[in-house]
Amino acid sequence: MTDRYAVFGNPIGHSKSPRIHALFAAQTRQDMSYEAILADKDGFAAAVDAFRAIKHGTARGANVTVPFKEEAFRLAARRTPRAEAAGAVNTLSFEAGEILGDNTDGAGLLRDLKHNLGCDPAGRRILLLGAGGAARGVVLPLLLEGPADLLIANRTEETAARLALEFSRLPGCAVGIKPDGIGFGGLAGRSFDLVINATSAGLSGAVLPLPTSVFAPRGIAYEMVYGRETPFMTQARGAGARVADGLGMLVEQAAEAFFVWRGVRPETAPVLAALKGN
Ligand code: ATR
To answer: Which residue in 212, 206, 159 sits closest to 187, CA to CA?
Structure first.
């Protein structure tokens, strides 16, 4: 009986997850299938139920992407601490009639930074752009690495301030610094070793009003969007920063989900190379 997995989203047509997990499964010789499922905007829970009800094979788990990560959080009967901190779930495990929710996005970002890009956040001055779901998912994992500073900047200043306040109260932060939250206007004259763009501005080609000074010479500029050159990437490159897009994070969060489900950690380098190849 093949173990079955899927990714749920809307839209889902361009998802790379089926290809990534097929490569992981082949590499680690796991007997499993993985498909992309388009769920109606108001039909996520029903789509998960239908997937679990199919009689051939055994539904073991699922990934969840935009716009269902918050709904997946509520659907899960139990959640891991990192999913609780993120307030969102991207990985579901179907266990003995119960749904367990996890979030592998933060782990994926950190693994891409540390293992693929050679950037250890410990002791670095970090600027996180955005205060929506994508930003929220990486705040605690970044804080736990012990950066020198973590500043959250957002178009809407109050949202950044609220997010920073929320994470400055967590016990994990007792070991390190408390994040601050500001509007983009407060960035003038400030400089960071690592700038992470977790806004969705790049998806629409919108330009963020960033002073070029935020990119320290030889610093890293990380764009969570992948598959296109965003204005953020162009600006950072012009400022002399090393630029990375979110493809590595996509593959690494998938590898972490695969590990959660299968107990085997796949090699990500060949998969990343295959995706970059076309
Ligand atoms: P996601 O789950 O991708 O984070 P989201 O929760 O809707 O999506 O959050 C989108 C983030 O991108 C927010 O931080 C948003 O800023 P606001 O809080 O001010 O809305 C940011 N964002 C989206 N478009 C932007 C733009 N054109 N310029 C600056 N920030 C933008």
So the answer is: 212
Taking each helix axis from N to C end, the angle separating 269-277 and 17-28, rounded to the nearest 10 degrees, works out to 140
- What pTM does this model have? 0.95
Q: Is the CB of 133 under 6 A from ligand 1?
A: yes
**Out of 16, 69, 114, 276, which one is annotated catalytic?**
69
Cα diameter, the chain: 60
Give nearest CA residue, ligand 1 atom 14: 130
131 CA closest ligand 1 atom index: 14
Say yes or no: CB of residue 197 within 6 Å of ligand 1: no
Cα–Cα dist 24/249, whole Å: 15
- Distance, in Å, from the CA atom of 55 to the CA atom of 133, rounded to the nearest integer, reads 34
Q: What are phi and psi of 80, to 5 degrees?
A: -75, 160
Domains and CATH numbers, the chain: 3-103+249-276 (3.40.50.10860), 106-245 (3.40.50.720)
| Residue position matching structure tokens 């400089």 | 191
User: Catalytic annotation on 16?
Assistant: no
- For the chain of 278 residues, list the mean pLDDT of each consecutive stretch of 10: 96 96 98 98 98 93 96 98 95 94 98 97 97 94 94 98 89 70 97 97 95 95 96 97 98 98 98 92
